[in-house]
Amino acid sequence: MKALVWQGINRVAVEQVPDPQILQPTDAIVRVTKTAICGSDLHLLDGYVPSMVHGDILGHEFMGEVVEVGHEVRRVKVGDRVIVPFPIACGKCWYCQHNMTSLCDNSNPNPKLAETMWGHAPAGIYGYSHITGGYAGGQAQFARTVYADANLYKVPEGLTDEQVLFLTDILPTGYMAAEHCNIQGGDVVAVFGAGPVGLFGIASAFLLGAGRVIAIDRFPERLEMARSYGAETIDYEKEEVFERLKEMTGGRGPDSVMDAVGLESHGTGLGGIADAVKQTTRVLESERPHALRAAIMACRKGGTVSVPGVYGGLADKIPVGAFMNKGLTLKTGQTHVHRYLDILTNHIVKGDVDPTRIITHRLTLDDAPHAYQIFKHKHEGCIKCVLDP
Ligand code: NAD
Ligand code: ZN
Question: Which cofactor does it need (predicted)?
Fold first, then answer.
């Protein structure tokens, strides 16, 4: 089959690779019908995630048709149309039982590396380096999925691939980030980053009762899209963000602030990733993370900072004094996708949110290397690329 593979920093290519096989009786093979490129993939492209190996298949946002199941798979059948949540749940451990599937205890077969860096290993993730399990990803024609009964989510009749594809990650991610904002009716929420995650964060904040949302970015198409979701906007290259946020909130600051940026893919960023982790393929420069720092500084006293943006190693210059003395709450995490699937599917069916609106590029798998570049540099007005393998 064809698949998109990582070949080193800033190098991905479509290659012919062996078809995936059922390895465990709980596995299922999915013929991928749609897959997307995520801001998190850019961290792999940029070499910020340790333990990538030449030839690893990328992709954690994918869906398709089940074509083969292991002999212990009961709930999922050949022919089912499914979306595949990016974090892998075993369905049985304490975390899965408590609906915190991105923290699953059993789905990461390489926990040691993550434990060195983070103290505990989070769940396995498709196409996301060996620190999260080394699973082959879904930017491919076929993918092996594991613990199929606990993970594969059947698509209700009548919904198109494009309507449900983002249930795999970014729609629940925006929603969980908004939930983390602890929104009280009428609150003002500021969102740093109007990429796909920030945009779904905006839409979700309104669904959860925000009165106003203020989006901050520098790309006109993204700011425009944010406005179309009902947000007010600040261009951080043209305006003084901190001052503007104060002005727009009567001097107090937003009630909650989201960092939907994470490791910037083309910023001038900060650094000091753990030396302990020798597999780190690139050392972060020393000014990151702008957005997290700005979020902490801009949030009103007693407010909440929600961080869907992905971080990996260590970051310095975090204003921990502001954090403590303003009495802020910080909420973050890889998204517990499974928890939100029914809620968000209902919102899609009812038309409360139209996830397809953010798609700017519909391409084939062969176009993926180009798609990575336009998405990374936000060229051609790129907001979200969907690939048809
Ligand atoms: P993206 O790269 O398309 O969007 C990031 C946006 O942030 C860009 O529009 C960029 O211009 C903007 N930006 C950069 N620096 C900024 C700054 N200082 N202030 C304001 N805006 C700034 O990526 P995306 O797909 O939207 O993903 C965003 C983040 O969410 C990434 O870090 C990604 O890894 C993370 N993510 C997390 C989860 C999770 O489970 N927590 C899931 C998916 C994605
Ligand atoms: Zn993603």
Answer: Zn(2+)
Domain ranges, residue 287: 174-332
Q: Is the pLDDT of residue 274 over 70?
A: no
Residues contacting residue 321 through CB under 8 Å, at least 6 positions apart = none
Judged against a pLDDT cut of 50, whether residue 270 lies above it is answered with no
Q: Do residues 297 and 377 both lie within one domain?
A: no
Residues 64 and 205 in one domain: no
* 324 and 344 fall within a common domain: no
Pocket test for ligand 1, best of 192, 234, 235, 261 (most atoms within 8 A of CB): 261
pLDDT score, position 333: 97
**Maximal C-alpha separation, the chain:** 62
Instruction: Note whether 216 and 305 are same-domain residues.
Output: yes
pLDDT computed for residue 118 by the predictor: 86
Last residue of a domain, one of 284, 301, 332: 332
**pLDDT of amino acid 316:** 67
